[in-house]
Specification:
With 155 residues, this protein is mainly β. The chain is built from 3 helices and 9 strands. The longest helix has 8 residues, at 11-18.
Length: 155
């Protein structure tokens, strides 16, 4: 989902976008990140058109020599950046890259392959780079498959 591009906007819509429950305040770190802000002031207009999750199908592989999920056309918005690529490193590790690091979400990111049911939690390693290990990376990123993914913040 994406928040509406024009007002009105409600806190319940913001909470739903973030997968959170009410009450939720405008100064919550996730709300600030979603708005692309590191500190107040913040207003509802800062949140218009923003998204705190990615849901969609992607064909994997082909771009690099490794198994990968590639969003070269910039369709995978996540907070204040675009997801670039999730790369398979080994049967139990993977790396996630983003474009345009700014005040993006710097917490953990959950990548779930809805087709296979496999998921991995990616932790910040450095700006624009997250890493994950200890999960079934072979079935998170299946070479040459078109799988459906959900990418959300993880706590």
């Amino acid at each position: 989902m994406t928040l509406p591009a024009t007002l009105p906007l409600s806190m319940s819509q913001i909470a739903n976008e973030l997968g959170r429950a009410l009450p939720l305040g405008m100064l919550d770190p996730m709300v600030l990140s979603l708005a692309g802000k590191s500190a107040p002031p913040i207003s509802f207009t800062d949140l218009l058109g923003k998204t705190g999750r990615y849901d969609g199908s992607v064909k994997t592989g082909a771009i690099s020599l490794q198994r990968s999920i590639d969003w070269l056309n910039g369709t995978a918005r996540f907070f204040d950046v675009f997801l670039s690529e999730v790369v398979w490193n080994s049967p139990t590790t993977a790396t996630l890259f983003t474009w345009s690091p700014s005040n993006e979400w710097r917490g953990n990111i959950l990548v779930r392959n809805n087709t296979t049911g496999v998921q991995g939690v990616f932790v910040p390693a450095q700006p624009a780079l997250y890493s994950a290990s200890g999960f079934d990376a072979n079935n998170l990123i299946r070479n040459g498959a078109t799988d459906n993914y959900t990418i959300v913040p993880s706590f």
